[in-house]
C-alpha cells in the first residue's frame, strides 16, 4: 500500500508539540492508521532520539510500549508546554511589534500563533486588529488606520498589505530608474542630431576634422556630439587662428573623449 507524506522527527525550535501531534494525526488519516498500537509505534519511531529518551524517562520504570498513544502525547505535552497563565500569554501577545524584515502577512501569522492560548474567545478579531495597528512598523500606515472609521481586523489587514505592496512597487520603480540613469546619456543613431530638448542647445559647431556636429548645452556647459557622447572641454569661446571663428571649443586629453574621437584637435 502506498504511503502518503512523511512526518519527520520533532524539532522543538521549529514547532510546538501540539502542532507536531496535529501533523501526525493528519498522517494517520491519510494512511488509514487507526489502531492505537500502530499510532504509538509510528510516534515512537519518527519522533527522534531526544523525544524517545524523554518518553522513556517520563514513563520509567515502565516501558513506552506499556502506554497508549494518547498517554504518551499527554506526558510529553505536559512536560514541554506546561499550563501557563493567560495573563502571561497576553503579555507576550501585546508586546509583539512588527520586525524590521517582517512583512505584514508574517506579522499577522505570528500574532495568530501568540493568541492561541490567550483565551480571547469572541473578541479575538478585535484583539488582532488592535495589535496589528499598534504594532505596525510604518508610522504612516498606522496613522491611516487610526483615521479609518469602524475599522475591522480584515479591513486593517487588507489596507496594511496594500500600503506595503505600493511602497515596494515604488521602491522597485525608483531602483529601475536609477539603473537607467546610471547608463549615462542615451545614444542617438548615426546621422541623427542630439536631443535638443534635453540639451537646450545654444550653439552648433562643425568640425572638418571630425566630420560631426558638437552641441553646447546651456545647462552645464558640457558638450555632446551627434552620437550623444559627453565630450570634456577645457576652454569655451576660444578663437582659433585657422578658422577665425569664435565660440569654438578646445578638447582636453584628460579625461579623454571616446576612442573614436581621439584625433587631432588643432583646428575646426
Report on the structure:
There is one protein chain. Helices cover 46% and strands 10% of the residues. By secondary structure, the chain is an alpha+beta fold. A four-stranded antiparallel beta sheet has the order 1-2-3-4. Helix 7 runs parallel beside helix 9 (153-182). Residues 188-268 have low confidence and may be disordered.
- The residue-averaged pLDDT reads 76
Q: Largest sheet, described in full?
A: 4 strands, antiparallel
User: Based on helices, strands and strand pairing, what is the structural class?
Assistant: alpha+beta
**Using only CA atoms, what is the Rg?**
37 Å
Q: Looking across the biggest beta sheet, what order are the strands in? A: 1-2-3-4
Q: Number of helical runs?
A: 10
Number-wise, the strands total 6
In percent, how much strand structure appears in the residues?
Answer: 5-15%
Helical fraction equals: 40-55%
Uncertain spans: 188-268
Order of helices and strands: HHHHHHHHHHEEEEEE
Distance between the termini: 90 Å
What is the approximate shape?
elongated
Amino acid at each position: 500500500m502506498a504511503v502518503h507524506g512523511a512526518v519527520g522527527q520533532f524539532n522543538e525550535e521549529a514547532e510546538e508539540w501540539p502542532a507536531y501531534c496535529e501533523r501526525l494525526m493528519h498522517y494517520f488519516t491519510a494512511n488509514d492508521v487507526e489502531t492505537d498500537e500502530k499510532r504509538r509505534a509510528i510516534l515512537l519511531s519518527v519522533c527522534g532520539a531526544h523525544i524517545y529518551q524523554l518518553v522513556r524517562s517520563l514513563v520509567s520504570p515502565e516501558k513506552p510500549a506499556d502506554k497508549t498513544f494518547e498517554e504518551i502525547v499527554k506526558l510529553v505535552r505536559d512536560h514541554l508546554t506546561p499550563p501557563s497563565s493567560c495573563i502571561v500569554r497576553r503579555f507576550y501577545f501585546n508586546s509583539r511589534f512588527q520586525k524590521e524584515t517582517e512583512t505584514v502577512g508574517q506579522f499577522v501569522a505570528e500574532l495568530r500563533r501568540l493568541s492561541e492560548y490567550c483565551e480571547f474567545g469572541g473578541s479575538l478579531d478585535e484583539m488582532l486588529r488592535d495589535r496589528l495597528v499598534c504594532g505596525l512598523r510604518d508610522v504612516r500606515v498606522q496613522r491611516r488606520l487610526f483615521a479609518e472609521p469602524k475599522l475591522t481586523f480584515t479591513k486593517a489587514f487588507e489596507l496594511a498589505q496594500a500600503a506595503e505592496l505600493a511602497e515596494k512597487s515604488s521602491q522597485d520603480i525608483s531602483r529601475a530608474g536609477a539603473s537607467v540613469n546610471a547608463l549615462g546619456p542615451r545614444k542617438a543613431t548615426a546621422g541623427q542630431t542630439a536631443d535638443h530638448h534635453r540639451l537646450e542647445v545654444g550653439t552648433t559647431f562643425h568640425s572638418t576634422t571630425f566630420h560631426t556636429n558638437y552641441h553646447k548645452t546651456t545647462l552645464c556647459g558640457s558638450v555632446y556630439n551627434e552620437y550623444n557622447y559627453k565630450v570634456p572641454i577645457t576652454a569655451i569661446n576660444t578663437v582659433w587662428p585657422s578658422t577665425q571663428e569664435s565660440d569654438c571649443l578646445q578638447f582636453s586629453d584628460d579625461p579623454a573623449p571616446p576612442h573614436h574621437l581621439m584625433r587631432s584637435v588643432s583646428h575646426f
